[in-house]
Amino acid sequence: MAGSVKNIVVGGGTGNIGRYLVSSLVKSGHNVSVISRRAVVLNKIMKTTRSSSSHFLPQSAISWKDIDREGLPLDTDVVINLSGRSIGNPGPWTNSLKKSIESSRIDTTKRLAKAIEKSEIPPKVFISASAVGAYACDPDKIYTESDVPVIKGRETFFTDLCKKWEESSAVKEECNTRVVNPRFGVVLAYDTPPLTTLMPQTALTGATEVGTGDQPFPWVHMDDAVSAVNFMIENESVSGPVNVVGPQIVDNSQFTKALADACMSCVLKNMPLPAFVVRLLYGTERADNILLDSPKVQPQTLLDMGFQFQHQTIDTALKHVVSVLMESKDSGFDYSALKWALERNKKRKNAQ
Ligand SMILES: NC(=O)c1ccc[n+]([C@@H]2O[C@H](COP(=O)([O-])OP(=O)(O)OC[C@H]3O[C@@H](n4cnc5c(N)ncnc54)[C@H](OP(=O)(O)O)[C@@H]3O)[C@@H](O)[C@H]2O)c1
Fold first, then answer.
1. Pocket of ligand 1 contains residue 104 by CB under 6 Å
2. Ligand 1 in contact with 37 (CB < 6 A)?
3. DSSP summary character for residue 134
């Protein structure tokens, strides 16, 4: 299968990581279909814009109902699931939101696992997203894939979610489908969260540390996240959980400094975002699970298997993100204001 043209189905292929991944897969010559709740609208848009668009668009969009009714398209080689209601938006994790966060990941994954099991010729690989939230936040530990993610009694909503999410991607052994669970860290690109909020704020006024700033910030550049998924498709010996984080472990304070440097701005040292404000904005559980604490994670499997990271350090990764934004044709008020602020900062820096 390595290197050949493949038929690839991507659940959640319309999302932050999905857009970049689908574009790279189509660019490489693969036939890609996305599964989306908005399949009908997407098909209409793609039909009218395909000839004029400079983007690498998927061949088609399929609805989840189509998957339930008709199964996977014939001759599907690779299935990927990136679906999931956002975890990081402001506001507390209410019970109904938690249910929706879970079902948007677990139900979609189960539906794909079922479709794989029903296929006459099952796909070779099923890549089903997970997150570094699978690991507990033991400050003395650097987690690799061979560690028990969380010891009994230390479970949280986030660790439980990731456990159930990964378990739901299991398919019957007789399918011979390789299952991989990329445990993504925070994926960094100029047009995806959290940088869509943090970059303008940093470029315009300065960067703020969150809480004490000591909490780890597991990150990965979008280019490397996309390459890692490509690596999982092509490399038949990869299976199980795979940490998709950059090779440099940093804390929130180092991330904040690197972002300020990349935006040629400063860290507002006297104005960190205090933990109590983060808890007020996000609710205690979400704040404590995502923003005020995170695990230290190493991409051991990728490193052991010879995966080459394009962006090795948070400094170079964020500088690259800024340079891609400056070269992009993206306009609109948000991007114009951000580009203006970055140009202004550059001039100020050069004048010093
Ligand atoms: N981005 C990161 O930094 C990061 C870090 C760790 C883990 N992850 C995980 O990796 C996966 C992809 O991340 P992402 O940032 O690309 O995700 P995203 O853009 O927030 O969402 C991906 C797609 O999920 C679908 N979706 C949203 N809400 C849904 C719902 N209630 N029910 C069913 N589908 C829903 C949407 O597709 P349609 O509207 O087309 O149906 C959306 O385009 C997610 O599961 C995420 O948790 C991401």
1. yes
2. yes
3. G
